[in-house]
Specification:
heterodimer, A: alpha+beta, 6-stranded antiparallel β-sheet, 5-stranded antiparallel β-sheet, 18 strands, 16% strand, B: alpha/beta, 5-stranded parallel β-sheet, 45% helix, globular
Chain lengths: 657, 123
């Protein structure tokens, strides 16, 4: 039982394997063909046999009829009594005729004892042996004598005989019951019936052949349809992924049938591209809607307030958004921005430069190269000087190559400050070295012992003294600047007698004025002017302003220093008739490291920190410095110092508020 | 014994150099700007030039270039400068064979070299 089922299983498995094998083994095909041939052969054989059978059956049938007729004929001829030669002769003729007509082998008339007449003349009179016993054949009139088959028909005398002797004498009609006489014909045997075995074999082989062919057809079709079945399999397996991972539907290698699978893959690719495009369009619409929302809410307002220019460029090279700073630079209206594309945009001046920068950083695939550089502008016409940091930031969202953010930052002030600082450093180092040079040279002169002329020696001492003072003032300036920058400068208020202070400063600087033959006048009010201030810092302010006046007043000029006091404040004035200051520069020259740009100023040494320092100090006192000047019309600096009590008062009122 | 021209917009520098050079027996001519200096070089026979770098209108380098390239004068030149970026300067001036001294300078050493160049005796 178990063995049987195991065997069955093996058979089933091997059949299954065979059926699903990749390639049909070659022998299978050949064997199918052989089976076919065998089947055909058998069929042909059967056909032939059948046909023969049929014809012989027919032949038999017609022969039998003829035999019957012959038998009737013979019956009409009369009973062959005691070998009546006449009748026998007739018989003989009839038989002869028959046999020629029908080509039977032997045909005879016989009774049980002997052969009466025959187509074979030698047989006539031959006694029947016992051995010739008749064995009935399948048909009722078929007998068998030894190995041959004969048809035996009884001659129907009783029916047809004309001469039935009726003896009148005997009242008893003694019809002689004659011994039966038979007509026997030897016909070729019927062909044997088609044996059941061969017919079965034939049928089976036909069936097998047909099955085999069907199988071959199936295999061929399957090969053909493999491409399709793979597609169907793939679709079925990945049906849940279709929406998100269209690419999983691609079929990798193709073993033959490239056409159909290649076409399938193409279809998948196309659909994928379409899908991406749709997503992209949807995303762009989303983005557009989001940006529109941005435009409608406070974020947009905030961006408009940002001093940097901000522009957002979509991947259709359209200016999707530009804040008001950017619009100002390009000269656009904020609501016009959406209609502008990179290629149709127009601008002038700085805007044009920036546009060119954006255009030149656009690459062939539509994306933008990152960019972060300074752009310096020096327009001689409009006398506009500035520096901008232009930043192009490409956005790297999937499938959106051409988007970028452009930021335009005005860094003019920083650049100016940097440049001024660099200039300051080099100026300062130069300025420091000048007095040092003098001190060094003159002290060496003194110590060399070569020059004993007292005039020369006095000169040396004076120079050294002056230069030392100059050096210390410069260092003081620098220190003040750093302190002011850091915010650690301290104003220590004390009672300061302005008249004395001013006199002292003028005295100190008289030498410099004398070099240029400048008339330095001090106009003091009769009353003593006192103020709460930091004396040292205030002297720095006075020295700076005086120094400037002397520097920028040509030879034989005049400088008038005055001091006036009101209830709230004290005003110190420094008026010169020097080269003056262009009103455009009035604000700038108070900035750190800034000086006038005129050649007359540039050719003088200066650090650019004097006015800055002075103003900061005065502001710390709660005051300010005002300037009245025009080019070539001299300059008047007015230092306003509030009285500290009134300052305190105003301070407290502002605190109360 | 040579004629030396000293050019500097700082009067004190000109003065101290004059003192030293005269003490060493040279004739000293002075100028406080480039234009004046060039005029003097053209009109007089100057054996040696000492000039400052930073001067208004025409700076030291300009003066040297004009003297060497335009006037084709070969006189020895000493340049005094307070600037820090020396490498550039030295490179540029190599072609003009100029002696560069940074400020603050030591007068004695300067005068020594000048005397050596002129073949005079240093005092």
């Amino acid at each position: 039982m178990i063995g049987g089922s195991a065997a069955l299983k093996t058979v089933y498995q091997s059949v299954r394997r065979f059926l699903t094998a990749e390639e049909v083994p070659r022998w299978f095909g050949l064997s199918i063909v052989l089976i076919y041939l065998v089947g055909l052969g058998t069929v042909a054989n059967v056909g032939i046999l059948y046909a023969r059978n049929e014809s012989s059956m027919q032949f038999q049938h017609s022969s039998r009829n003829a035999l019957q007729q012959l038998a009737d004929q013979l019956a009409l001829m009369g009973y062959p009594e005691s070998d009546n030669p006449a009748i026998v002769n007739q018989y003989q003729k009839a038989l002869h005729r028959f046999s020629t007509q029908f080509l039977s082998r032997i045909i005879r008339v016989a009774n049980d004892k002997k052969i009466i007449a025959s187509s074979v003349s030698t047989e006539i009179g031959v006694l029947r042996s016992k051995e010739d016993s008749a064995i009935s054949g399948p048909d009722s009139d078929q007998i068998r004598y030894s190995s041959d088959w004969w048809i035996r028909l009884a001659v129907p005398f009783h029916r047809l005989a004309k001469n039935t002797v009726v003896d009148e004498n005997s009242k008893n009609t003694t019809t002689k019951s004659n011994a039966p006489v038979y007509l026997e014909a030897n016909f070729p045997p019927t062909p044997p019936a088609i044996s059941s075995l061969s017919s079965t074999a034939g049928t089976l082989s036909i069936v097998l052949a047909v099955l085999g062919s069907l199988f071959m057809v199936y295999r061929c079709l399957r090969e053909q349809l493999r491409g399709m079945s793979r597609i169907v399999d793939r679709l079925h397996t990945h049906r849940h992924r279709i929406e998100n991972e269209l690419g999983s539907l691609r079929i990798a290698n193709t073993v033959g049938f490239d056409q159909i699978i290649a076409s399938w893959n193409e279809l998948v690719d196309l659909t994928q591209r379409l899908q991406e495009k749709v997503e992209h369009t949807e995303a762009t619409e989303e983005l557009t809607r989001a940006l529109q929302n941005v435009g409608n809410n406070s974020l947009a307002e905030a961006l408009h307030a940002v001093p940097d220019g901000m522009i957002f460029i979509t991947d259709e090279n359209r200016f999707e958004y530009a804040n008001s700073a950017a619009c100002r630079i390009f000269g656009w209206e904020i609501d016009q921005v959406k209609n502008i594309t990179l290629d149709t945009a127009s601008a002038t001046g700085i805007g044009l430069k920036i546009l060119n920068i954006i255009l030149s950083s656009r690459q062939s695939d539509g994306s933008f190269k990152p960019y972060n550089e300074l752009m310096h502008v020096d327009d001689a016409e409009s006398k506009f000087q500035g520096s901008y940091r232009i930043m192009i930031i490409p956005m790297h969202r999937a499938h959106r190559e051409g988007e970028c953010l452009v930021i335009i930052r005005d860094v003019s002030q920083q650049i100016r400050a940097e440049r001024a600082r660099e200039e300051f450093v080099s100026h300062v180092s130069h300025e420091l070295r000048t007095p040092l040079t003098n001190i060094r040279a003159y002290s060496e002169t003194l110590s060399s012992g070569m020059f004993e002329d007292p005039k020369v020696m006095t000169e040396c001492y004076n120079v050294i003294t002056k230069e030392t003072r100059r050096l210390s003032r410069l260092i003081e300036d620098i220190l003040n600047v750093s302190q002011l920058e850091v915010g650690t400068i301290e104003i220590t208020l004390d009672r300061v007698d302005l008249n004395t202070l001013l006199s002292e400063c003028i005295r100190d600087i008289q030498g410099l004025a004398d070099e240029k033959n400048i008339n330095l006048k001090l106009i003091l009010p009769p009353k003593l002017d006192e103020i709460q201030a930091d004396r040292d810092k205030l002297s720095v302010v006075i020295n700076n302003l005086l120094g400037n006046s002397i520097k920028y007043t040509p030879k034989d000029g005049t400088i008038i220093v005055g001091c006036q006091s009101t209830r709230d404040e004290v005003v110190l004035t420094f008026k010169d008739n020097g080269i003056g200051i262009d009103p455009n520069d009035h604000g700038r020259i108070f900035e750190k490291f800034q000086r006038g740009n005129e050649p007359e100023v540039q050719n003088e040494t200066g650090s650019g920190i004097g006015l800055f320092t002075a103003r900061e100090i005065i502001r710390r006192h709660g005051g300010d410095i005002e300037l009245i000047s025009n080019k070539n019309e001299g300059a008047t600096f007015m230092v306003k110092l509030p009285h500290q009590e009134s300052r305190a008062a105003s301070k407290s009122t502002s605190e109360e508020n | 014994m040579a004629s030396i021209l000293v050019v500097d917009d700082e009067v004190s520098v000109v003065r101290v150099l004059s003192i030293w050079l005269e003490r060493n027996g040279h004739d000293v001519f002075t100028a406080c700007n480039g234009a004046d200096a060039l005029t003097q070089i053209e009109s007089q026979s100057i054996d040696l030039l000492i000039t400052d770098m930073n001067m208004p209108y025409v700076n030291g380098v300009e003066i040297i270039r004009i003297i060497r390239d335009k006037m084709k004068k070969e006189l020895p030149i000493f340049l005094l400068t307070a600037r820090c970026d020396q490498e550039n300067l030295v490179e540029r001036l190599k072609q003009y064979s100029v002696h560069v001294y940074t400020k603050p300078f030591v007068p004695s050493r300067l005068v020594e070299e000048i005397n050596r160049l002129l073949g005079a005796v240093t005092l």
